[in-house]
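Before the break, one more example. Copy the sequence into your notebook; we will annotate it together after we see the structure.
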Amino acid sequence: MITGASTGIGAATAHRAVEFGHRVVLAARSEDKLRELASELGGDEKALAVRCDVTSWDDQRALVDTALERFGRMDAYFANAGFGAKRGFLEESVEHWKSMIDTNVLGAALSIRASLGHFRKENRGHLILTSSIAGRRALPGSLYSATKHAVTAMGEALRQEIADTEIKMTLIEPGMVDTPFFDNRVSGALEADDIARAVLFALTQPPHVDVNEMLIRPIHQPA
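Here is what the structure looks like once it is written out:
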């Protein structure tokens, strides 16, 4: 399961996952992009496109139900949906702020809630959350940074909750990545596939190994 799957890290991870033999459920609000990606990945046998607003509890529950109905199992849930905002507490609109907080924080929490019941029932599974280097250190005027601090804390809180189970939890914390997250292309950044390969590294560890945090910077990013 991959939320925020239509572009960037989500789409790159879907490509890598299929290469590794996974079937994928692609979730995002952009249905056209999802259907196009699903076709690229091999169609209905390998990829299922499902429109989902991660801030909607009904959508999240329906997403998991659809995945289980279609494929009969769910091995991993990659809660990747999110977006940013300009730095500065006098920047952006209040509406933009609210939408970002709802998506980045509530959306991640609902992804956990929607998938955890199934993983507990099976006593197996892997939850992966996209945080950020901004979730480790505060950035000047960055409300986005505060949302990613919340995701980082959420991941650790989840890890502690499920420590007595066989369920795994991984936080992915990218530095600068050249994705549609930025309005303009950035130089010297990671590529989306760099993060996708990290996700698959975490997913392919032996059963007794739980990779909890992966902080990934481009080589010349100073902070």
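The beta strands are 2-3, 24-28, 47-51, 76-79, 126-130, 168-174, 177-178, 190-191, 213-216. Residues 80 and 206 are 23 Å apart (CA to CA). Try to locate both features in your own notes.
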